[in-house]
Amino acid sequence: MNSKQAFTVIESFNRSKYGDPQQGDDFLVVNQNFVAVLDGATDISGARYNGISSGRLLPRA
To answer: Is 45 inside a domain boundary?
Structure first.
């Protein structure tokens, strides 16, 4: 793939409904090949896996 950057992210914003950015379920992923917005789903059961909500766990996979 071309090593030149094809785009520039000028600004981004992410607000957690929990008030703490570390608890939000949405992610912005930027690298030289693509930009992705990952919209994590809130698990209404409140289940956590090693202290991480499923909405934060899945985008990390």
So the answer is: yes
Instruction: Give the Cα separation of 42 and 55 in Å (integer).
Output: 5
Model confidence band, residue 1 (pLDDT cutoffs 50, 70, 90): low
Max intra-chain CA distance, the chain: 44
DSSP string, 9-59: --------TTS-GGG-SEEEEE-SS-EEEEEPPP-TT--EETTEEHHHHHH
Q: Quick check: is 35 in a domain?
A: yes
Which range has the worst mean pLDDT, 1-5, 14-18, 32-36, 46-50? 1-5
Question: 43 lies in a domain?
Answer: yes
- The count of structural domains within the chain is 1
